[in-house]
Design brief:
Layout lengths: L4 E11 L2 E8 L4 H17 L13 E6 L10 E7 L10 E5 L2 E10 L4 H14 L9 E8 L5 E8 L2
C-alpha cells in the first residue's frame, strides 16, 4: 500500500488554554511510542463516556514536550479536551496546557508519517522567521483518527 502525505500550512496562531483528560504514555525508546500511543488512544475512545465535561466536537488531542524539564513532563498524553477537570476516571490523568503561540500544519495521511512531517513544519518555522520553543507543549489535534488515515493539526510552539 502506497502512503500518501497531504500537508497544508495554516500559519501561526494562538491557541487558548486546554484542559485535558486521558492517558499518559511513557516509554523507554521512541519505537515503543509508535506502538503504545495508538493503544492508549483506542482505550481512551472506549472509555470516553467516563469523562465529564467533554468539549464538543470531541477531538483526540496528543500533547508532549520535546525538551521536558522534569520527569513529570516526560511522555505523551493522549486525551480529550474538557470544559472543567472533575472526577478524573480511574487510571487516567489530567493536564492543563497554557495559552501558547503555535506554528500549525494540517496533515492528512498515515500516522507512521507524522514524525517525518514535523521536519517539514520545523523547516517552515525557520523559513518564516520564527523560533521553536521545545520546552513548551506541542499539540496534535485530531479531527479524524483511524488505522489508515489521520487528519491532524500539528501545533509546534513558537515565539
Amino acid at each position: 500500500m502506497e502512503k500518501t502525505k497531504r500537508i497544508e500550512y495554516r500559519g501561526v496562531k494562538e491557541i487558548g488554554e486546554k484542559k485535558l483528560v486521558g492517558f499518559r504514555v511513557v516509554c523507554e525508546d521512541m519505537k515503543e511510542f509508535g506502538e503504545e500511543i495508538p493503544k492508549a488512544s483506542m482505550k481512551l475512545v472506549e472509555r470516553k463516556s467516563e469523562i465529564k465535561h467533554l468539549v464538543e466536537p470531541v477531538n483526540l488531542i496528543g500533547a508532549f514536550k520535546v525538551a521536558e524539564e522534569s520527569q513529570d513532563e516526560d511522555g505523551y498524553w493522549s486525551c480529550f479536551e474538557v470544559e472543567a477537570i472533575e472526577d478524573v476516571p480511574e487510571g487516567m490523568v489530567s493536564l492543563t496546557i497554557p495559552k501558547q503561540k503555535y506554528a500549525v500544519l494540517n496533515f492528512k495521511g498515515h500516522s507512521s508519517e507524522i514524525i517525518d512531517v514535523y521536519t517539514d513544519l520545523h523547516q517552515w518555522i525557520t523559513d518564516n522567521g520564527y523560533e521553536r520553543t521545545p520546552e513548551k507543549w506541542t499539540l496534535e489535534i485530531y479531527s479524524e483518527w483511524s488505522e489508515n488515515e489521520d487528519n491532524v493539526d500539528l501545533c509546534d510552539p513558537v515565539k
